[in-house]
Amino acid sequence: MAKLKVTVWNEYRHEREDAKVAEIYPAGIHQAIGGYLGQDSTLEVRTATLDEPEHGLTDEVLAETDVLIWWGHVAHHEVKDEIVQKVRDRVLDGMGLIVLHSAHASKIFEALLGTHTGQLKWREAGEKERLWVVEPNHPIAAGLGEYIEIAHEEMYGERFEIPAPDELVFISWFEGGEVFRSGCCYRRGKGKLFYFRPGHESFPTYHHPDVIKVISNAVRWAAPVAGSKVTYGRVEPLEALKVTEHV
Amino acid sequence: MAKLKVTVWNEYRHEREDAKVAEIYPAGIHQAIGGYLGQDSTLEVRTATLDEPEHGLTDEVLAETDVLIWWGHVAHHEVKDEIVQKVRDRVLDGMGLIVLHSAHASKIFEALLGTHTGQLKWREAGEKERLWVVEPNHPIAAGLGEYIEIAHEEMYGERFEIPAPDELVFISWFEGGEVFRSGCCYRRGKGKLFYFRPGHESFPTYHHPDVIKVISNAVRWAAPVAGSKVTYGRVEPLEALKVTEHV
Amino acid sequence: MAKLKVTVWNEYRHEREDAKVAEIYPAGIHQAIGGYLGQDSTLEVRTATLDEPEHGLTDEVLAETDVLIWWGHVAHHEVKDEIVQKVRDRVLDGMGLIVLHSAHASKIFEALLGTHTGQLKWREAGEKERLWVVEPNHPIAAGLGEYIEIAHEEMYGERFEIPAPDELVFISWFEGGEVFRSGCCYRRGKGKLFYFRPGHESFPTYHHPDVIKVISNAVRWAAPVAGSKVTYGRVEPLEALKVTEHV
Amino acid sequence: MAKLKVTVWNEYRHEREDAKVAEIYPAGIHQAIGGYLGQDSTLEVRTATLDEPEHGLTDEVLAETDVLIWWGHVAHHEVKDEIVQKVRDRVLDGMGLIVLHSAHASKIFEALLGTHTGQLKWREAGEKERLWVVEPNHPIAAGLGEYIEIAHEEMYGERFEIPAPDELVFISWFEGGEVFRSGCCYRRGKGKLFYFRPGHESFPTYHHPDVIKVISNAVRWAAPVAGSKVTYGRVEPLEALKVTEHV
């Protein structure tokens, strides 16, 4: 069976500019996530980053990507609009997209959902987050307990300006008193999107086994599926019309 | 009670360039729709068109519009991106938006939904369309029979590349053998959107009482509602944290 | 304008058997809620309780009820199945239904949703609950702040075995570490249902202004609306068939 | 890999009482469907019928069924309530359920969805049905063309009194002028349901390759998935409470 091709995209700035972050993710968040996923022999994992030519997302790379994982934070505005459009077209054409944490404010997430997805409450206090599974039979929750507990995380709180998710898998509880829709599934065009909240750069969240399990489950969930044929444009009638072309 | 402020926007090209269309809509589709809505004394109706400065959608007009109705077809690309962004922001801030017929391919509809909403099947053969009500208790269907029949219309057929509607009110049957999701409700940000399929420029569809009834119902459905308070951005914790700001 | 007819149904056992509860709700939870709603001159409010004949829900009462509010806890099994079926039929025929707190496990809620709605986590520790508004433009949230805070409540925690709500308005945060989908909208048949979590009998929750505001908003949201005509059963074709009745 | 266990349940009355039906399905609809599915070596298929003891749905059979297919028409009322409850519990516990054609009015479908699912329009005129795929990337549509055409079928028309499907895969066009939501997905409890419209007993619909393909796809879609752990009932707090158990 052909391997599933995963590309982990990362802005890759914090890790090169902040010693504290570099300590947690010496080779970058993309390499951390990619390394864990790469232990699965059914996945073929590559990475791409903002400062590579075309942000590492050439037509060839996109064409060979089944599922794209996206992490960004301080440099959303540096992502070129033409690349965003290419990624959007690929998602609508069937590529899966997993949007992590602060990439809620990325151009690609906003372009695909249409709302001001950057709008939410936040606080960097290193508090406790507990992600409760609300749909225990969802494939993205496979193998988890009833919740995921993360000792220290940035807080994101509602109201989060997103379209109501097609499927809501996780809801977060925060020590400081907020809640958040933390695992949101969307189907758009032929593609699937999953937004997963945790993963601030200054915490070792992507070394948490349950977080990796969710990302790994989401990769499989978001993978392209065989579907039916679809065409667009002008068509002839399938049934005889009583009218003729109107004059 | 304050009147509800409705702006009917129209590309207004066919009516000026095609004698056949001008015969049906001598003052333009916007004036036809606006005229019918204006008979309702609880509505305050104005119109705006593509070739006016700023497409007739100045900041003042947008600020004073509760519900915007949008018709376009051949000149979607002439609508300026900055106006599209202003309209999008107003919708996400609470203004209702009713997207008619060929405006499925408009920039504003695509920007708010995120998919290639221009993608569908079509045929101009003047065939019969029957729009079945699938949610008879939806306020947009109020006062209708079980279906709306239109003797001659352009056909739009599935697959229509839209996000699954939050509420699906109408499904069309076409004489030539196709079906279509013809009445689609979406909530985005604080705003509501309604897509309504019928209304090709070469047919007197907007003189059909049931079509006007649907548009009129949709205006009320899409009107801004009083909601709860909402703020975004950095917040202090509501509960005492065990951790202090991480170092 | 005709008044909206509201019936507040209560099991009415705790208040008669437990002095502590009677202190909070001397005339019963139904009278407390009914009293607050009755201050609104556009509502016509009556009450009904389990131990009345037919549980106070005669055909006449049901026929004259636009919105039914339901509170029950220890005596769900005493509600007669034929009354449950009548209530269900009325909801599917357009009557609104507001299901409060422990009525999640009522026969009527389970009959209308189809799942084991009694299944959830719970704890009676009098802890703090904070209900966050996740859809600030929903009419049920009108006039609220960003959240409702209740100093002491019973905890309900996920997983709650309900169908994914058509609209999710509130998510609760609990001091003990859990979350809950606390404001759930459903459309079923011609009727609308709203489940609202708070309201344990041993706390003065139904004296909380925001809780009453939500119930009041929900009454209006769930009120029957004018819809389209609908018929069922055998019908003649609307179009000529090429086949004749098969032999 | 363990085989997926499929049980095809059939009322099995028409085939034994009506020579015309017996000609099409000599061994019954269950054997026809079961025979086709049985050609897939990854499936283990058995059948069960109404007139067997316990309708062929003993605890053992249900416990060993991953996906149950259900066909019924004239004898819905003969299905014992206790069996319906057992099937419902199994679905909510994870067993898939595929409800075919006239089983829209079965006790099990109504019990799981909560509405009067028997309510729809119908006509037995052997007319043409065309099922359009509206979600071409749904696994249930895998391998199909843009639509399925059935030369002769009973007509079912909207309004169909169902909860809005979680995912709508097919919409039918009928020669006589109606439309119908013909492929409806629901998640309930840990289980998945798929309603598929075609299959009147007097037509060879279950010999149609595309119809079998859909049923086969639906079996895989509805199969139980590994999920997360879930428990219900009284729980201790996960966080220290400021209050003590209230007195």
From TrEMBL, chains A, B, C, D:
Domain ThuA-like: 5-222
Keywords: Glutamine amidotransferase, Transferase
SUPFAM superfamilies named among the record's database cross-references: Class I glutamine amidotransferase-like
Keyword Transferase: yes
Record-linked Gene3D superfamilies: 3.40.50.880
Keyword Transferase in record: yes
Highest taxon of the lineage: Bacteria
Molecular function GO labels: transferase activity
Protein name (record): Glutamine amidotransferase
Source species of the chain: Paenibacillus yonginensis
